[in-house]
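REQUEST ID: PR-0412
SUBMITTED BY: lab tech R.K.
PRIORITY: routine
TASK: structure prediction, single protein chain
INPUT:
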Amino acid sequence: MATKAAKLTSFNWEGVDRNGRKIKGDSRAENASNLRATLRKQGIAAQRIRRKSAIAQLMEGERSKRIKPGDIAVLMRQMATMLDSGVPIVQALDIIGRGHENPNMQRLVMGIKDDVESGTPLSQSLAKYPAYFDELVCNLIEAGEQAGVLDTLLDKIATYKEKTESIKRKIRKAMFYPAAVVAVAIIVTGILLIYVVPQFESLFRGFGADLPAFTRMVIDLSNFTRDNWLYILGAIIIAAVGLIQLHKRSPRFRHGLDRFSLRIPVVGPILRKAAMARFARTLSTMFAAGVPLVDALHSVAGATGNSVYGNAVLRMREEVAQGQQLQWATEQTKLFPHMVVQMIAIGEEAGSLDTMLTKVADFFEEEVDAAIDSLSSLLEPFIMVILGVLVGGLVIAMYLPIFKLGQVI
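STATUS: complete
OUTPUT:
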């Protein structure tokens, strides 16, 4: 007879880890005692456990519907820590699954746990969820299982996931601010054209004088926008959806867009550095796991985040498969700076390619951080220019007839 699953409750907790550092978080458990025991198994001495309010749990449920890449990175880190502490893999998955605050993530982990408990290797179990665990992760875990160093490989995967997600977050953060400001400026401009400019037009009609050309142009634009705003909005939505679908389904369009993005001033160099950081970090992780270089390059191609670099890595793979050195194949792409080529050459000569690639990844990740900080300061005047042209231009156009009338009087 099947037993009824116990109802889990969300808790906020504070505690101290093995190194004496204070940490806090939120987890789900049957009760506070079970949560305290679960945290103890993870090496955390709980000092304070408090049950979340019903409203907080309801809001948490709304927020936690989707499984994010960051959740997968945390899962890898938790598994690496617990396996390194000697916790069996099935028990580790059970502890992580029951304690997760995201119900969807909880179901995912418990599904993996059931597969592993029935005798399925972890790599094959993860491969059943390609939306969350790509070929790269599955290959690395399979290599760890075969070599008997699964905890070490999980730690490397966790580091890799954390680093790559950190770069993605920083790039998204750098792009969000200007995009949001421009979007607000466009919305404000639309409101002015539809509701405000017509009020000035009725005022100017009483002047009985010719309007300046710039004012007449803005009024005509206002009339067109007011009469056709539904069509304009529909065209924008259709164009946006069409571009998104084209990007998903057309490799040729995606490649052209990626190539164009690399040529954009200021933004292009950041995307290049991010692609090289992903290339170096992924290849170092796979090479350190004992994956053959040719096989590793196949997985690295899809992890660069840019089809231009992805295609270049595939060409490198073909040349390495024919017996060429990685250094020479990298140099032939003309996409990597001399420093990267030399670091790879030194790594190949010294037999420490993974170490050198890790240093390359660290360098470019720091470069991306610095470039994004500089980008934020460079974009501010650019944004002010856009706001000045859009909003300030409309204001000037509306006040030009008033200034002209004042001069006549």
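NOTES: Residues 217 and 353 are 63 Å apart (CA to CA).
REVIEWED BY: pending
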